[in-house]
Amino acid sequence: MTWQATILTLFPGMFPGPLGQSLAGRALEDGLWSLDLRDLREYGLGRHRTVDDTPFGGGAGMVMRPDVVATAIRDVAAAGRPVIYPTPRGRLLRQDDVRRLTSGPGIVVLCGRYEGVDERVLEECAVEQVSIGDYVLSGGEMAALVLLDSCVRLIPGVMGSDASGTEESFSDGLLEYPHYTKPASWEGRDVPDILLSGHHAAIASWRQTESETATRVRRPDLWAAYRRRTGQDTSDPVS
Ligand code: ADE
């Protein structure tokens, strides 16, 4: 069955954007996934198709109305598909989440603009709030594109027979090892000798060490989790 993405947005022109190119674009053409775009403005109220209003309690910006957003969510018959709201207030998106979302029938993504969406509709419609990083974008659309890209590339058939889905950053909780190609010597920098040796076991072991070092140095948070999971951390668990 085709993996289905429904996007609720005030800016449908931003899609498929980069997802119409390359692997994701080809997969879209081949029907490996489908993109259902809904303009939130069409659910707006009155002659002006109003979707937002001023925040209770005062403050800057506008907030998207719960009634408008709920009508849109209910109209797309999410049946079995989680509704995701990209927001910097959300839980940080991780590769485990991406795997879970790709293994289901698809997702509905609610893109917010302005100051965000009324909290009540997020509760009432069991919306999953997800952040793609600790920085602020001007709306949810770019985050939706990032989320979709990460999901689509895991759909069976999208990456072909490529092994890179299982041998990449996060597949085992570590960052990936570094890559090299020709020329073997470039501007005085040589490819590590071991990679030219033909000793597959030694190469695998070198790559494992490089992965561990990069993770320990660059991402102590991932390194601590990896050590706990692989039983190498013998310190007291944090309560
Ligand atoms: N919308 C605005 N900023 C965002 C972020 N960092 N992650 C997800 N959605 C967002």
TrEMBL record:
GO cellular component, one term: cytosol
Keywords: Cytoplasm, Methyltransferase, S-adenosyl-L-methionine, Transferase, tRNA processing
Ranges for region Disordered: 226-239
Record-listed E.C. numbers: 2.1.1.228
tRNA methyltransferase TRMD/TRM10-type domain: residues covered: 5-224
Molecular-function GO term, any one: tRNA (guanine(37)-N1)-methyltransferase activity
Alphabetical GO biological process terms: tRNA N1-guanine methylation
Chemical reaction(s) catalysed: guanosine(37) in tRNA + S-adenosyl-L-methionine = N(1)-methylguanosine(37) in tRNA + S-adenosyl-L-homocysteine + H(+)
A UniProt-annotated Pfam family: tRNA_m1G_MT
Subcellular location field: Cytoplasm
Binding of S-adenosyl-L-methionine, residues: G112, I132, G133, D134, Y135, V136, L137
Class in the EC hierarchy, top level: transferase
Entry-linked InterPro entries: Alpha/beta_knot_MTases, tRNA_m1G_MeTrfase_C_sf, tRNA_m1G_MeTrfase_TrmD, tRNA_m1G_MTases_N, tRNA_MeTrfase_TRMD/TRM10
NCBIfam families from the UniProt entry: PRK00026.1 (NF000648), trmD (TIGR00088)
Subunit structure: Homodimer.
Protein task: Specifically methylates guanosine-37 in various tRNAs.
Similarity-based family: Belongs to the RNA methyltransferase TrmD family.
Protein name (Swiss-Prot/TrEMBL): tRNA (guanine-N(1)-)-methyltransferase
Organism: Gluconacetobacter asukensis
Origin organism lineage: Bacteria, Pseudomonadati, Pseudomonadota, Alphaproteobacteria, Acetobacterales
